[in-house]
Fold these 2 entries.
Entry 1:
Amino acid sequence: MKKIIISDATLRDGNHAVQHQLTKKQVATYAKAADNAGVNIVEVGHGNGIGASSMLVGQAKETDVVLLETARENLKNSKLGIHIIPGFATIENDLKSAISIGVDVFRVASHCTEANVTEKHIDYCRSEGKEVYGVLMMSHMAPVDVLVEEALKMESYGADAVIIMDSAGYYLPSDVNERVTALRNALQVYIGFHGHNNMGMAVANSIEAVKCGAVMIDGCILGFGAGSGNTQLEVLVAVLQRLGYKTDIDLYKILDAADIAKKDVVPAIPTISTNSIVSGMAGVFSGFLKRVDKVAAEYKVDPRDVFFELGKRKAIAGQEDLIVEVALELVKKK
């Protein structure tokens, strides 16, 4: 029976959904529930990863240290993971601190065509004997052959696995099939997949990834994540069980975790809004949704026009300033 490793991004990607305002108490509550359910990896931190709290992408309510120490105290069996984007996270300040706190899994991420920026961070984590994965964000923006080349770079740097992110919720199962199959044929390390639900395809895409050889799948409880949310973890576990795949997760206990999260962690369960559909179609980072809605209302422009223009400009996370620029240009056109 094929074993699937589940990484739970609720306490990291979910921070996008609340503008990075998750509290120490919420982290403790959910970390304990996920640990009790047998989740393999629990990822914690600012939505854009450690070191990312800022005016540009959003200031977190709690510091990285508070979030990670709280999670560490409540994870007895699950591994503690973090998301790292070089440029936000530094080796000297952020990675060393994370290691001292007891982080187990280091996921070093870059835009899908910029894997070279991850070399130093991956190398450092490996030198410290840590489990380290390479992550290619916004993976739909690279042709398949380029995606493979970038993944091979991460493998050569020492990554134990390479995970592709459908950061915009753009993929259909055929897209996933093409990319995961190509990666599986080219790489020696594990392949992982991280889905978003803008087009309602997150669970289907995750299952397609598994069928094509991925063994690491990300999910969030109740789908709690950026935009219209992520692959809904408790649904993913149930579907994998029905298909005969093995995970370490207890179905009843992950369902209990969903009920706990609904009561104490998730203020609003993500839904597929009309604007998140457009965000997915345009291939725009799911985390832009709330800011686009706010800016569009302020400048009295159609948020759908904003998303499609951002898609034409190939905007990525960290370029939130483009939202206002696009809105102003739309006002001028009017």
Entry 2:
Amino acid sequence: MAALPAGAKAPAFTLQGTDGKKSSLAEALKKGPVVAAFFKVSCPTCQFTAPFLERLHDAYGGEQFTLWGISQDDAADTREFCREFEIDFPALIDEKGYSISNQYGITNVPTVFLIAPDGKIQESSVGFSKKDFEQIAAAVARATSTPPTAFFKPGEVIPDLKPG
């Protein structure tokens, strides 16, 4: 089974964060689009991708946009990962058995979904894709009526693709 594609209905979920609070996709979508980024702390591509997710969160996070990291590890390891990679966006925990990851068809991490307020997946990206991140950032800018910014900085050497 492959990750759910763009156009598919995003399965509903409520997960507990590393802070102990529960977060619901349905509630977040009432405010605007949601990026759900599935990851494992031991995954090198996830470690590479985390700062770019933080950059997306810094640029567009607020009342109209939600970004969650959805960890396939326990809360303690996830908190440490967030500290190490200077992540401020909320991290939610997909408990052992990975029921939410399975509903989304996760076979590789990172897998990133942009979910539109209507509950449909607008973008689906497996591994790290420079083009996909640029598309997600542009879509979030449009959805939040925020002027788009250059997502990657001049002079940064970023691979086009990095498999998960």
